[in-house]
Amino acid sequence: MTAYAWHPSAEFTEHGNIAAFCRTHGVDGGYRALQARSAADPEWYWARAVADIGVVWHRPPDRILDDSGGIAATRWFPGARTNLADSCLDRHVRQGRGAAPVLRWEREDGRRGRLTYAQAAADSARVAGGLRALGVGEGDRVACCLPPGPEAFVLLFACARLGALLVPLFSGFGAEAIAVRLADAGARVLVTARTTRRHGRAYDLEAVARTAVAAVPGVRHLVVAPGDWDRLAAAPPVVPASLDAAAPFLLLHTSGTTGRPKGAVHTHGGFAAQVGSETRYHLDLRPDDVVFWVTDPGWIMFPLVLVGTTLAGGCVVAYEGAVDHPDPGRLWRLLAEHGVTVFGSSPSLSRMLRVRGPKVPPVPDRLRVLGSTGEPWTEEAWRWYSAEFGGGRCPVINICGGTEVGGSLLASAPVVPQSPCSFAGPCLGIDAIVADETGAEVPEGQTGELVVRRPWPGMTRGLWQAPERFREAYFSRRPGSWSHGDLVSRVGDEWFVHGRADDVVKVAGKRLGPAEAEAAVVADPAVAEASAVGVPHPLKGETLWCFAVPAPGRALGPADTERLRARVATALGPAFRPDRVLAVPDLPRTRNGKVMRRLLRALVTGDPPGDTSTLVDPAVLDPIRAAVLAATSTPESTPTP
Are residues 534 and 565 in the same domain? Predict the structure, then answer.
C-alpha cells in the first residue's frame, strides 16, 4: 500500500474548483473519473472548461476542434473570435471588479507598488496605443527583455490587445543571444529597461539591448523604461482587437542542443484554454489568491502565471531581484508581506534554501498551495518543501511540460493524496501514456517516454518559420503522436518524471535515468546538489560521471568521492558505480532552474556545447572544466565491475 506524504483536506475535496466542476457537470467518481473522461472525450471537456474558466468569445466557436488534418495540424475553436486581454483584464472590469488588485510588485532595493484590474486594463490600452504609433499592427512581433515588474506585465496585455506577438527574452541574455532571437522573430520593436539589480549589483540592460539591436537592422525601435516607456504609455488607448481564436499571441524560443533556438507559437484561444485549465483546476486558483512564481519574463512560466491568474481573477506578485538577498529570509518576508497564497519555484531553489537558508520561519498563514516545475525532485528536497517550507498543509503541485506545450502535460492535483516527487498523471484534457520506442504502452513500474496521443489546446501551432523541424522534432518517431522526450514511469495512479530521454545513461546495455544516480549522491550529508551524465567508454558504451556540489562548510576530498561512488553502487547496483565523482562549486543551470547536463557531458567529451545563452552564469563552466581536465589527466578510477 502506498505511503502517502500528504492528504487533501475538505478545502480541496469539497470546496475546490475540481469538486465544483464535477458537481456542475454530473461527474461521479471525482477527480479520477474526470481525468479519464477528459482524456477520452476532449471535446466534451474543453467545451465546458473554457466556459468555466471565463474565456470571452466575441463570436463562439463553430466546434471545439478540427483534427481532420492530424494531430500536428489540429485547429482549436474554429470560427471563434476572442482577445486574450479582454478575457484576462477587461472582463473583470465589466463585472465590477476593477478595484481588485491584479499585480503587486517589488524590487530588490525595496521599492514596491500595485495595480488594480482597472489600472492594468487602462495602462495596457495606452501602451498598445503607443505601439500602434510606432507602426506595430496585427501579426507584428514585439520583443520584451524586461525584469519581472509592471512593465513586463502591462506589455504582455498591450501586445494581446493589438494582435501583435510578444517575443519574451530572458533578462540575463547577452547581446548575441538577444540578436539571434530578434532576427529569427523578425521583431520590429524591442522593449527593455535601463538597468536591473540582482544580489545588490546593477546590470546595464540598455547597453546590451543597443548592441543587439545594432546587429539586427529589422528592429526599428528600441523602447527603454522608464523614459521611452513613459512616453509610450501616454498614447491614446486602444480597445482589444477581435481576433480569430487561432491568432498567434506568443512567440517564445526554447533552446535546442545545437543550432538556432526553436520558436514556439501560442494562440489567443488555445493558450488561454490550456493555462486557464491548469491554474484553475490543478493549482485551484480563486479570485482571492495571490500568486508568486519565481521566474523571469523570458520563460514560459511568466506568461502562464500572468494569464492563468488573471483568468481566475487573482493577483500576481512580480519580484525583481534575488529572493535570498540581502539574506535568505527575504523570500519568507515576501510571502508574508504580500499575502501570498500560491507559491511556485524550481526544485533547485528548494535545495538551495534547504542547505543554505536560515532555520525555516513560521509558514505564512495564507499560504495554501505550493507549485514546482523545471526538473525532477529528489525525495529529500521534496519532503523539505512539503513538510518544512509548506508546514505539511499545502499540496505540492508538480507540473511538467515546456515551452512548446504551452503549459503542462503532467500535473499533481490538490484533491488526491501525494507521494514524494509524484504527479497525479496527465493534466485534465491530456491523453498521455508511458511508451516504449515503438509507441506501445509499457507495464506499470517501467520507465518509458512521455507520449501524447491526442491534441491539446496549448500545443504550439508549429515552430516559427520551421514547419519541417516541427514535424521532425515531435512526430517523426511515433507518427500520429507527440513524443515529448521526458522519461517517466507510472505506479498505480501516480506518475514520476526521471529526466530527459536524451540524458539517459546506458552502461553496458543497462539504461539509467540520471535523477536516480543524483538522488543517491545527494543523500550524502556532505553534498548539496549533484548531476549525473553518461560519457563514451570504449568497452561499456557509456560510463557514469557525477558532479557534486559540497554542502555549505563541507569539502569533498578523494575519500569523500570514493564514498559517493560506493553509495551509488549500493543504491543502483555495482554496474552503475560512477567512474568519476568530481567536486565542483556549482552546476550550469538556466534561470528557471534546469541543470544543463549536456554542457557537463560536452566538457568531458570535448564536443561543441551548443546554445549556452540561457545559462544564469556562464563563468560556472570554468571551474568545472578545470575539474574535468584534472580528472582526465590522472588514471581512471577502479574499473566498474
Answer: yes
Q: At 257, is the pLDDT very low, low, confident or very high (cuts 50, 70, 90)?
A: very low
Q: Give the CA-trace dihedral at 550, 556, 562, 568, to 10 degrees.
A: 0
- The CATH number given to whatever domain includes residue 612 is 3.30.300.30
Which cell numbers in the block locate residue 480?
A: 500520429
Q: Which residues face 452 on adjacent strands? A: 432, 482
Q: Tell me how far apart the alpha carbons of residues 272 and 67 are, in angstroms, rounded to a whole number.
A: 19
* Residues 239, 344 within the same domain: yes
- pLDDT tens per residue across span 335-352: 999 999 999 998 878 877
Q: pLDDT for 421-465, tens place per residue?
A: 999 999 999 999 999 989 999 999 999 999 999 999 999 999 999
CA distance 140 to 136: 6
The Cα 522–Cα 516 span in angstroms is: 10
Q: Are residues 479 and 542 in the same domain?
A: no
Q: For the whole model, what pTM was predicted? A: 0.85
Q: Which domain holds residue 600?
A: 504-632
How high is the pLDDT of residue 499? 77
Cis peptide before 585 (omega within 30 of 0): no
> Same domain, yes or no, for 258 and 183?
yes
Give the chain's domain count.
2
| Among 491, 514, 530, residue at a domain's last position | 491
Rounded to whole angstroms, the Cα distance separating 431 from 454 reads: 6
Q: Is the pLDDT of residue 370 over 60?
A: yes
Are residue 389 and residue 440 in the same domain, yes or no? yes
- Domain match, 272 and 382 both: yes
Q: Where residue 451 sits, what CATH number does that domain have? A: 3.40.50.12780
Question: Which phi and psi (to 5°) does residue 589 adopt?
Answer: -140, 155
CB 149 within 8 A of CB 318: yes
Q: Flag whether pLDDT at 241 surpasses 60.
A: yes
pLDDT recorded at residue 252: 96
Q: 154: left (phi > 0), else alpha (psi -120 to 50), else beta?
A: alpha
Q: Which of 197, 186, 207, 194 is nearest to 143 (CA)?
A: 186
